[in-house]
Amino acid sequence: MNKLLFDYNFASEERLPGGISRKALKICGDKAGEGLKKLRDMAEKGLVGFPDLVNQDLSSIKKLASEVRGRFDDLIVAGIGGSALGIEAVVNALLPYGYNALGKDLRGGFPRIWVADNTDPSKISGILEHCSPESTFTVVISKSGSTVETAANFSVIFEWLKNGVKDISGHIAVITDPEKGNLRAFANDNGLPVFDIAPSVGGRFSVLSPVGLLPAALMGVDIDKLLKGAADVTAGGYDKILTACAVYIYFMEKGRSINVLMPYSSRLEKFAEWFCQLWGESLGKKNTYSGKTVRFGTTPLRTVGAIDQHSQIQLFREGPLDKTVTFIGVKSHSAEKTIKGAFHKGFSYLEGVGLGELLNSELKATEAALLTSGVPSVRMDVDVIDEYSLGQLFMFFQYIVPVIGLSADINPFDQPGVEEAKEYAYGMMDRKGFEAKKSQFEEIYKKSDDFVL
Amino acid sequence: MNKLLFDYNFASEERLPGGISRKALKICGDKAGEGLKKLRDMAEKGLVGFPDLVNQDLSSIKKLASEVRGRFDDLIVAGIGGSALGIEAVVNALLPYGYNALGKDLRGGFPRIWVADNTDPSKISGILEHCSPESTFTVVISKSGSTVETAANFSVIFEWLKNGVKDISGHIAVITDPEKGNLRAFANDNGLPVFDIAPSVGGRFSVLSPVGLLPAALMGVDIDKLLKGAADVTAGGYDKILTACAVYIYFMEKGRSINVLMPYSSRLEKFAEWFCQLWGESLGKKNTYSGKTVRFGTTPLRTVGAIDQHSQIQLFREGPLDKTVTFIGVKSHSAEKTIKGAFHKGFSYLEGVGLGELLNSELKATEAALLTSGVPSVRMDVDVIDEYSLGQLFMFFQYIVPVIGLSADINPFDQPGVEEAKEYAYGMMDRKGFEAKKSQFEEIYKKSDDFVL
Could you tell me the domains of chain A? Predict the structure, then answer.
């Protein structure tokens, strides 16, 4: 099996002034150990479900995937946040570039895929213009069953579907809470296939649940291999996870307030966005479990190498020293392209070089350039990008993030700060029960023309 | 003409504890005024060229666009950083969603567009698999004419093209320095159409030069209207620019180290990435003009509303109070979709609501929720997203950023911090003249297995 490597040479005191010493590594590692112990306790008690997803029964997912295979030209996934970012990461990593522009034959009979996340009408109208109701399958995903953006988008999609097909059954699958919520009721009322998100699996930890796996299976992704990669992350123990946590904890405590993820692969761009939700929403917490106000957290920043060498590296090297960088390297790039002849003699130094080889040289060059500027970096390496390594990356970070949070006594599994905006929006839409929120909003949202130019 | 509004109600002391007072606005406005004076002096002396781009002669761009119109199925733009992000922003904002998946008839005879930025072989191979040489037009862009990623990608594209067509002329246009560089020489040697990037127009300020305008014109974008919007930003004077700068300067000085751009539109996602280069690379500077070490700059963060309400808002509200947020609102969303009937009675409050209307309610709700958490925000509003408003947004931020930099006595137009990584990479590829850099790199890039798990 391919190994996921975690390399912290350029974050260590031996290489970086102000880097982590062996003593600090031990201290921070002990903190991480306490966090891991809490996490494992919660998992054993059934309070935290993501670790056990590697053991789930995939038969109903595979059954549906096999039933619909070849029958649809388009798959719409209606979901937002944790119900969208995971499948987007899977698609970006595992399907060919510009997949939706390929003809059906080049797609191997699998559908195109459209993620209806934002309630931007240009996006939803755009998606529906690409599709025809009779050849479109829709997966609608909301853990609570009440996510307003998903409800709004799916209402539009559902009406479009009803007007275009005789029988909607066979065109929709639902992923939601096992019992509660309007989406569950809708699925039951209409006899639709429905898949559970266990209450113990939070949205941002759900990519390896049906939320990510059903759409992935519908696109022909090997979901067994995805789970195998995820399972193998902890198969050999937790040392690597604890070391990574220790390094992150150390630099967080040192006040490095921005955590940059910089994969050197365009196929991991969306993975970096998935990571940003996981890190930001899990760790950005005002209070500890015991009620102390801490305003914990650091800000995740998504970049892509080598692109952001031409955008953000100037700032990282010369601006405030407030960042740590996590590189992801890919040892062997698929479809490697070797430069046979340069188009001009000024570039003869490029002859015989592979594009992926160049990319990996740039990664090393950037690691070195950050080191000389005093910016700590760590590096994770995968052998290739495939289902297995993607499963590894998902699970590795799913462990890292809550262990860091629990070690600092904050709850990495809630998101109390997102409620207020939701409730104001409900108020504005005159939803029953939100009259007080509406008044409260109107009281707050007063603007003076003095401050508008 | 549609107005671009700048609203700083929720950053003002009258609404936000710790917000900007009228007195502070005056003080910071004076600083901005000094920065603007320097900028205008530099522009008058011909040292800074972006303001004058609104007066450029577009005839050669339009001539080429009209010559190639209808002749090609695919347009490849080979460029990275400032030579890619601008056209990506234009495409994202102005072309239909999933444009490359549309058939030729629905594209109005215009080509698909592929931006070959990263030297990720899966991306470049992927792009070439979509295209055929005889029906592909390539625009290759490098200001210096020596950008390694662009040279590498274009070498691969050029070889593919040579092997597929009898005569490469008519298939390539070049955008580069008016005199210097290998790319200029290549264009001259091959008699290719070539467009200038004036030495006074830096890469990240080049979207309104041929760098953005030629590919835009090839895609049928109204480039006159884009420039008209840009020109109108300063047509009525500089008050709005100075006020915006004053607000940003105030919160930078207060230590707010992260500047979030949050457009409530999926069509401005790539605009936000363009903004991140402009802000980060211009302002992230170690030294002032006079040589004082300041490590100036704040970190730009690209988000999209309402998507990031489900990803980053938890952190923004409850995590460290180190952010300011700049919203961009769109008053009227094109292709508005009204929800006629909800798919379940639990969502009846959504009936009669438009998706764009919902999006705008969520924007207001999020503004209010940030205000109650003590996070300053400003808001820019455009009436619609079109060429005109996009031109406004480009030009507005192109003024804001250097004015802030110059007011702090840093050089917003250079990028000394990106050289080192480039030179190490050249060394690794055994490029002549970089032998010393190679040795230096090898000395630095030593890793111990002790720090790899």
Answer: 5-42+228-407 (3.40.50.10490), 51-221 (3.40.50.10490)
